[in-house]
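User: Structure please.
Assistant: Input sequence and predicted structure:
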Amino acid sequence: MAKKLDALGHPLRLKIIAMLKLHGEMHMAQLASKLGVSRALVKVHMKKLEQAGLVRSRVVLVPGQAKALRMYELVDFTITVNPETIVKEVNLDG
């Protein structure tokens, strides 16, 4: 849970999640263009979202071109945070 919450703790990552929810699968250049930021910045944030299990990626070959695109899609998720889930998540003995 902590990894997911950390990944959701940046406004640009929230915008990326919203963009993927609205438009479905997208590649980095599409996301960067729609968000008005660099591809390098999108790459940094996508890595964090992917490590948290909130998005997944796959590589697709562009027909007729010697080029591949990494496509990103949103993973369906629900996060419930309350005192009970926090107690289950943390190690109070360490």
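The helical segments are 2-7, 11-23, 28-35, 39-51, 83-89.
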